[in-house]
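Morning. Coffee machine broken again, so started the prediction first thing and wrote up yesterday's gels while waiting. Chain of 220 residues, entered below exactly as on the submission form.
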Amino acid sequence: MSDDLRVVIVDDQHLVRTGFRMILDAEDGIEVVGEAADGLAGVEVVLREQPDVVLMDVRMPHLDGVEATRRITAAGVTTRVLVLTTFDLDEHVAGAVRAGASGFLLKDTPPDELVRAVRVVAAGDALLSPSVTRQLLDQVAAGGAPVATDPAVDALTEREREVLDLLARGLSNAEIAERLVLGETTVKTHVGRVLSKLGLRDRVQAVVWAYEHGIVRPGS
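Came back before lunch.
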């Protein structure tokens, strides 16, 4: 059985799907196993093929990328969703992340960055382009006052709270390790425990959660 990363492409533009397929199929260790031209068909293909990663367009007929992402993550499959959009200032950013997307990139991302994004997301990490990250946090901040404190916060140790704070500010594991004078492996363990205790899927979800619950304030 092949150990290649299996990818499904969901986009209503044939040329976009063809371009993505050519880029990914040219890479060793990556195999495109399916395509779909709308969100509804995309969900069906993903649930049938259960790929490692699905490239998901946001704006599509029949079912948009946000709802398609929500249905895929709700189905309990391990597939990671990497959402692509034409616009960096897209009102769907926060919705897609809350629905369970693990990454968000612009469609004009260079081929090597697209390939890297697929590998990063497939490995269980999360990825957002800088412009999308800013937009995401702006949308979260515009949502008004933080929601009530989640009792799950009390389950975090002091060190885990520190890690969550730095994670929510956009620091990588290496940067958190340097800031807290810890080994990078130790930081990775702490991040895993934070996600587990808070019931979060990945780092992107943790960033949104931290802002929504007032753990980190915009501009702090």
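Residues 184-198 form the longest helix (15 residues). Going to sketch it on the whiteboard this afternoon.
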